[in-house]
Amino acid sequence: xxxxxxxxxxxxxxxxxxxxxxxxxxxxxxxxxxxxxxxxxxxxxxxxxxxxxxxxxxxxxxxxxxxxxxxxxxxxxxxxxxxxxxxxxxxxxxxxxxxxxxxxxxxxxxxxxxxxxxxxxxxxxxxxxxxxxxxxxxxxxxxxxxxxxxxxxxxxxxxxxxxxxxxxxxxxxxxxxxxxxxxxxxxxxx
Length: 190
Hints:
By secondary structure, the protein is mainly α. The chain has helices spanning about 5-20, 25-105, 110-120, 130-140, 145-150, 150-160, 165-170, 175-185.
């Protein structure tokens, strides 16, 4: 036999052997199994996600309810504190302001201006703290105000110097100078 005949004969044997092998059937059987495994894994993943979502929703609902209860308890406490504050203001009015007004009347009965001030102190007003403050101001001299503490700053400001120039001259920060001027405006001394 010639060599080409051997080649043809070997090729035919290889072709018949390739057709006869059951490999493709085994691969096709494995493919549906891997698909089933993937579907099972996805189903488990979805179940786990649903459980996690339910737990998260429950946790959020519990935290909202806890926040609502905490808010209600704080509102009740604020109302109680406001009521106590009102009672303390009335007590302060009775113990400090009214006796101070009575002393002013006793000390200066002939002076109409002082009697008017004493009546104004003893008259009930909407802002009890304003009454207490005015009585305290009448009885004691005002402690050194912000204007007294920073007289050089306010002198420069009154001269029309800029905030930057004042800060540079006094060795202060620009924000500090602005804060002092703002506080003075609130205090009413500027």
